[in-house]
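Lecture 7 notes: from sequence to structure.

We start with a single chain of 99 residues. Read the sequence below before looking at the structure.
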Amino acid sequence: MHLRRDRSILFAVLLLTVFIVQTARGQSSSKLRFQISFPSVRSAAPLTGHIVLVLATTDNPEPRFQSGYTALDAAQMFGSDVNDWAPETPATIDASVLG
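Now the structure, written as tokens:
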């Protein structure tokens, strides 16, 4: 009985994911975007790594610890690689970045 329910939930999540991806592709001109930068006092040298943007509806628990949640109000995570990212220079996460 639990297996059937789990399969139904998995199928629903899969369909929702496909819908969201297709919608995101169709809305690449979206105005919503996040620009992230860091001050030179944190690092004078350029940084290389991965930026993770976490959007959550609550701060309890801390949003980065909500990534494994499967509820409808689970935190959403978006990431982008950066190479030689200079201080005070914004990196952009927008509709072109899949979450």
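Residues 1-29 form one domain. Keep this in mind for problem set 3.
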